[in-house]
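seq as requested:
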Amino acid sequence: MSRDAAIAGAHAYFDDGGFLADLKRRVAIPSESQKPERMPILETYFTEAAIPHLRELGFATRIVEGPEGCGPFLIGERHEGDGLPTVLTYGHGDVVRGYEGKWIDNLSPWEVTIKGDRWYGRGVADNKGQHAINLSALAPVMAARGGRLGFNVKVILEMGEEVGSPGLREVCAKHKTELAADVLIASDGPRMSAARPTVFLGSRGSFNFDLELKLRDGGHHSGNWGGALRNPASVLANAIATMIDPNGKNLVEGLRPPPISNAVRAAIADLVVGGNPGDPEIDPDWGEPGLTTPERVFGWNTLEVLSYLAGNPDIPVNAIPPEARATLQLRYVVGSDPDTFVEAIETHLAKHGFTGITVTPSRSAFAATRLDPENPWVTWALASIAKTSGKKPALLPNLGGSLPNDAFSDVLGLPTIWVPHSYPACSQHAPNEHLLAPVAREALGIMAGLFWDLGENGNDIIKAARA
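struct tokens:
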């Protein structure tokens, strides 16, 4: 049998309805990790969907409890032999809120509904459909290789990614030996466009923080006291204006990244942000001057205001508010140290004469990660995908968004290759989430080709990566 046979088998699995049937079983489980009352259902995704599929593929599996208050984890392994390459793959079976009643034509988020090339349902893109594609691509490789893959596979699935992956790093650290591998190959997030296969090597970090200024206990009449009392909303607005200029440049020196490396700049040069159906129109003059839009998104730190609150925006009253609060977010790349961010912000505000503004991290951060674009695993993955698809894949040094890649790159010490199977306008995290059928079919073939190639020359890539 051959590589072509493995890819043809993956396409046949899609064409015959096998993948759709599996996806329907997964989507039917309302595994909303953002709702505490759904906690008992989270493990159901493992017992009714993931474990049966993995055992069909010859995996031994077990459910692992995370730290207190965290969702469960599933660890599985298919071991074919010592001395073979070992790949770790990852996915999350939890989803965001279903938003029942808000979908087009009142579609149920817990059913897969087909409209043209779009398959609607909560989790079809984020992330049930994506990790199901990767696991499903193993079977045709085994069939084409006489029941063997030619490598070992380990898998870890979590049920808390949509609430920040609590416990993932701790579980990886505790089970580090059990999860040891040569490379992580996983899928999440979108391609650059629906038509172009994509590889990314990590993600930007995410650091949310609150700025708060409280000057007094209650509001005071704006006619009687206007001009006599300092307005915290005005003060805070001016403070933020020293941090972000009118064109979106990040002005806080301690929140700016090191210069973009030549290897990262070369990878980014091939990328285009936006221009796809459903994408917003790009503002080319917004952000760091002297950089292209892709460099700003994938190679730089961006500081954004997420919310601003003072008084009662819904029912404004004639009073000077006693306090004002804003939530800001820094998306940051490798080379920035999140442990220094709060001090850098406080130093900046003091330098500009602002006192009394408290700086409080408001959410635990995903760390910034990035595999070297010149790593042999990257070259190998790009070549494999190009051979299967007949297209030049887009290479993102890191995703513009954030995901828990540091659990694998930092805790487990793995090179990380991400091959996303969604696209930018998939409406993940919103009503009408959908997967594009042509992308899913192509992705099954791409992953079958990638896994076939891993069995063929995985040990050679391991040696080159360690050299």
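The mean pLDDT is 96.
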